[in-house]
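Researcher: First entry.
Model:
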Amino acid sequence: MLMSIPVLQVSKNLRQSFVTSSKGDQLKWKIGNLWGKADKFGYEGLAEWVSYELITRSNIDKRLVVPYKRCLLIEDNDITYEGCYSEDFLLPGESIITLHRVLESYGVNFEQLLQRQSAKSAILSIVDFLKSTLKLDTLNYISVMLSLDAFLLNEDRHLNNIAFIHGPAGYKLCPYFDHGLSLLSDTTDYPMTMPTSIALRKVKAKPFSTDFSKQARALESPLSFNRSSVTSFIDENEAELGRVAQILRTQINKYHFLFQ
C-alpha cells in the first residue's frame, strides 16, 4: 500500500518549528508550495486524508477546504516517515492569525471566559468579539467547525488551530485545517488493542467543552454530509481504513442529524 503513495524528499533545513498540536511539536516541512507533516502519534496522515475526503462529501464551501494526501517523507535520503502533505492556501501578502493571538492582543483571558459562561454563551461571546474586532461574521463558520470536530473526533481544536487570514483587504475566514489528531489517530492514548467503545468514551473535545456533543449542539449548525457518498467511501476503502471504518460508522449513527 505504501509503495503507491507519493514520496516527498525533504531535508532538516526545511523543517518548520512551531507548535502544531496541543500534544507537542510535530515534524513539519515546507517544500515549495507544499507542507509535509510526519506521523508522530499514530496515523495522523491517514486521519488528515480521510477527514478531507469526508469534508468534500459535505456542504462545506469549497473555498474552506484544504486537500490533504497521504505520502512518505524521506529526509536527507536517510530517514523515512509516513505522513501527509497539503498545498499552502495563503496568497502573497497573506498571513495566518490564530484565535489565541487575537485574544491575547486584546487582553481576553479565554479560560476565565469559559469559567463565567456556558459553552453556548462562550461561543457566542467569541463570535461577537470577532465581529467587532476583525469585522468577520463567524457564527456559521464556528458552528460548522464544532459539528465537524464532533463527527471526526478532533481532539486538537486548541486556540492555535482556529485561525483567520489577514491580507491587504483585511481579514477573511481560514480554511478548516489540521485534522491529524482525529478519528482516534493517537495510538499511544488509544492503542489499536483498545476496544473502540472504550476509546470513544476517553476522547475529549476542545476548546469550549470537553464534550463533543455539547459543542456540536450548542449552535444550530448548517453542516450536512451526503450519506450515500460517505458510506460508499468507507465501503470502498475498508481495508485501508482499518478501525477508522468502524469509528466512522459509529459516528454516522451518533450524528445522524448531520446526514442526508
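Researcher: Second entry.
Model:
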Amino acid sequence: MFGLEERGEPVMTLAAPVLQVKTLRAGDGVSYGYRHRAERDTRVALVSGGYAQGVARAIGSRAVVLFGDDEAPIIGRVAMDVCVVDIGGIDVGPRDEARFFGAARPDLLRAWADATGWTELELAAVVGLSVPREEVA
C-alpha cells in the first residue's frame, strides 16, 4: 500500500521476491566492482528490487531486509534492479518475500533516512512506478 495516513503513521510496505540463493565463500566478492568481500562462508539471496524501483543506492551495506522476523543485511552496492542480501543460516529460497520496510517496522525506513539524508516521506515517494501496488484493506 502506498501513502501515509493523515496522522503521519506509516502504512506502506515495500517487499520483493528472492530471485536466487547461492553460497558465497570467504573472499568471494559481490556487487559492482566486488565492493563487498565475504569475511566468511555464507549464503546470499539475490533480491528483486534496486534503485530503479526506489531502493536507495546509499543503503547498500547500511540497511537490512526482513524475512519473516529475521533481519539480514544488504551487502555491496544496490544495483539497478536487484540487491544482494547476506542470509547466513536463515531459511530463505527463491520466491520468498524480502521486506525492505513497512508499517510494522518503521525503524527500517528510518535507517534508510539516516543512510541517505532524505526523509522517510521522500524515500517512500521515490518507490518506482514499475513497482506493482497492492491495496490491502
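Model: Note on the second entry: The longest helix spans residues 106-116.
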